[in-house]
Design goal:
There is one protein chain. This protein is an alpha/beta fold and about 550 residues long. It has helices at about 15-30, 80-85, 85-95, 120-135, 155-160, 190-195, 195-205, 225-255, 270-280, 285-300, 305-315, 320-340, 350-390, 395-410, 415-425, 430-455, 460-475, 485-490, 490-510, 535-555, and strands at about 5-10, 35-40, 45, 55-60, 75-80, 110-115, 140-145, 150, 165-170, 185, 210. The strands form 2 sheets. The protein has a 6-stranded mixed β-sheet with strand order 8-7-6-9-10-11. Helix 8 packs across helix 15 and helix 14 (about 395-410) packs across helix 15 (about 415-425).
Length: about 550
Amino acid sequence: MSGVIAVVEGGDNPVQAMLAAEALRQAARKGGRELTVEIRTPRGVLHPLPAKPEADALLLVGDAAAPQGMDGLTPTRARVEDVLADAMAVLDRAWAGHAPAPAASAAKRIVAITSCPTGIAHTFMAAEGLEGAAKALGHSIKVETQGSVGAQNTLTAEDIAAADLVLIAADTQVELSRFGGKRVFLSGTKPAINGGQALVARALAEATVQGGGATTAAPAKKQATGPYKHLMTGVSFMLPFVVAGGLLVALAFAFGGIYAFDDAHKGTFAGALFQIGGRAALALMVPALAGYIAYSIADRPGIAPGMIGGMIAGQLNAGFLGGIVAGFVAGYFVAWLNSNLKLPRTLEGLKPVLILPVAGALVTGLFMIYVAGGPVATALAALTEFLRGMQGSGAIALGLIIGAMMAFDMGGPVNKAAYAFSTGLIASEVYAPMAAAMAAGMTPPLGLALAAYLFRDRFTAEEREAAPAAGVLGLAFISEGAIPFAAKDPLRVIPSLVVGSAVAGALSMMVGAELRVPHGGIFVLPIPNAVSHLLGYIVALVAGTVVTALMLRVLKKPAIA
């Protein structure tokens, strides 16, 4: 064939990638050009290119890497924003130069690590993507997954010593000190999921040597870390404390009633459960959040100052907001001090074990006590009181907002912002937003599965086959199950999902449902006291699912195939 091949990757915003692809298709039709578009989303590749693609021009949009088999073309790059602003102009530019790309390298030994904030879906999807890509390119690979149950398929010293490349595909901070002297490449999970072969080829070409005593490698420009990634690292390490603490407190209430925390239950089984869950696990969630935000910024020297700052935030009643402040202050101060404090070589060993932790803890602690702690505590108290006092239209409005955000990009930054906000409030014993967030996050794939069953003419045979799997993901509170459907018809599917999730979130807030654990889907609902107003909560989830299905029936056109 001739024409243009476009590969669209929206990074953390798959919705924009879908819209950009549709804009390119419309521009190609208007211009009478032949266009083939591959869309790369967090869930996988939509409309994949043929094994041996042929075209006159190659267009790479967003963070997309060049597909395999197109060595004869020099790609034209464009931002997603440029395509949305003027897709026709971008297509016109795509007919620029044609120069051969570098040839593929010989077979290599690769070791890799994958990790995501929750350690559930993206961790293992990225591992599968890398394994498949390496096999297709003729390389050997071993992937260590740092998931919610810990590291699996752990890399040994022998594996690392024999490796030609270390590929880190992670959305959280990964310990790199064991890779001293090896070529290391840093990436997020999405490139591994969306285009594993392109990522492996790029890593082989651009990896940098990891210093023997350093703990970080220079990341590629497009994978630069920032506050969002640092916050998600903290949330990732905080989640196990919240899950364990919330469930144990719920069990304490099941055995001893809602006053299991008072002195009358001291020495009882219920009192012991509350001590473990409430006074230990949940008390550690803010220090863990702060400590691992600082770790993400400054590596191991930041953990102690961050956790100490987080503990002080808890003592000052500054809660998770104070923990976030403490984590960033500790991390950036320790990183700055580490870079600017020059010592004789004989004293360098004192920095990570003495100077950085002590100085970092001192500065962070004083900052929290004398500068930030009081104002943050006041702000959190006002927010907590406001949220607890929300009734009627106010509660419904908050539920609508949380619900819409959870469905808007299904695992992207908007979704994670709503999730992190709701999870953090658990430390302040505000549980209603978490209930709304989980109901709204379950609704998109459940609604799509229901619609594919009831309104079969609106879905292709392929979509109908994928619907049951999406429904299972929805039951487990994995919103990403809806992404393949949204990618094919974003202008109709995404509004349907947003409306349905907004309804679920609003109804959850309206009935006063509260959720003490931040994950698990329907599998935590049978646990006594994990969810309050359980019947109303189930009604909210069912209503959101039904509304989503009905919206899809109204907005989607009958499928061609």
